[in-house]
C-alpha cells in the first residue's frame, strides 16, 4: 500500500518572528492547495519566550527581565500558555482538516498528530504515553490553569513519561487547515523560566516552581544518557513517519516563498501591536 507523501522542513535556528511567520505562511499555502501536508522542525535564535494567543503579556510576563536576559519574545497564533524555547526540538504540523482519518475535534486531532511524537519518544527508548485527565477536578484544571507556564500541567493527549509532561503543544484551525506546533524538551532550566513571569509574591513563585518539577521533566533528566538535537531530530522524524504512516520528503522553500515569510515576520510578529495586543 502506497503511503501519503508529506513535506519535511528542517529550518534550523531562526528568529522568533521568522519561526511564527513560517508556520503561518505554511498554513496559508496549505489552504490554497500550494503545498503538501508538512512536518517542520526548528530551533530559536535567540532563546525565546513565546506566549499563547490569548495571554495577557504585560500582566503575566516581566518584559524587562526578558530583555535583560537577551531573550526573544513573540506571541504565537495558537493558544496555550507560555513556553521558554531554549534546549528543545520544536516541531510544527500543517495538514488540512479534511485529511483522511483526521478527526474533526481538536482533542482527537491532537491524539492523531501526537502519535508521531509518541513514536519519537519510544525511538529514544522512553516509555511515553498520552495524558488523559479522568477526574472532574483534572478536567476543570484544564479550563482554568493556575499558572501562565505551559509545562505546569499536562493537557488532553499530551505526552508524559513517568507521570510528568515531556512535550507541550498548541493547535489552531484556520482556513480549513490545522496548525499544531509544540516543544519537545531536552533540558529544562526552571530558574530561568520562572524568572520571566510575574507572581503576586515570592512564596507563590516558589510553590509554582516546586510544583513544576513534579509535573514536567526534560528528556535528558530521564533518558540516562545525553541526547542531543541531531539524535532527537532523527528519532522524531522517524517517529512522525511511523506514527502517521507517511513518507517524509524534503521540502525546500522558493525564493518567492521566503520573501513572503519575511514580510509576515516584519509586519506582524516583530510588531508590538501583535505581541502586546493583550
UniProtKB/TrEMBL annotation:
The entry's keywords: Acyltransferase, Transferase
Pathway as given in its UniProt record: Protein modification; protein lipoylation via endogenous pathway; protein N(6)-(lipoyl)lysine from octanoyl-[acyl-carrier-protein]
E.C. number(s) listed in UniProt: 2.3.1.181
Superkingdom, natural source: Bacteria
Catalytic center residues: 150
Reaction equations catalysed: octanoyl-[ACP] + L-lysyl-[protein] = N(6)-octanoyl-L-lysyl-[protein] + holo-[ACP] + H(+)
Domain BPL/LPL catalytic, first and last residues per copy: 33-248
Site residues (Lowers pKa of active site Cys), renumbered to this chain: 165
Signal peptide extent: none
GO BP terms: lipoate biosynthetic process; protein lipoylation
General function of this protein: Catalyzes the transfer of endogenously produced octanoic acid from octanoyl-acyl-carrier-protein onto the lipoyl domain of GcvH, an intermediate carrier during protein lipoylation.
Assembly description: Monomer.
Membership in a protein family: Belongs to the octanoyltransferase LipM family.
Miscellaneous field: In the reaction, the free carboxyl group of octanoic acid is attached via an amide linkage to the epsilon-amino group of a specific lysine residue of lipoyl domains of lipoate-dependent enzymes. The reaction proceeds via an octanoyl-thioester enzyme intermediate.
Entry protein name: Octanoyltransferase LipM
Originating organism: Peribacillus muralis
Gene that produces this protein: lipM
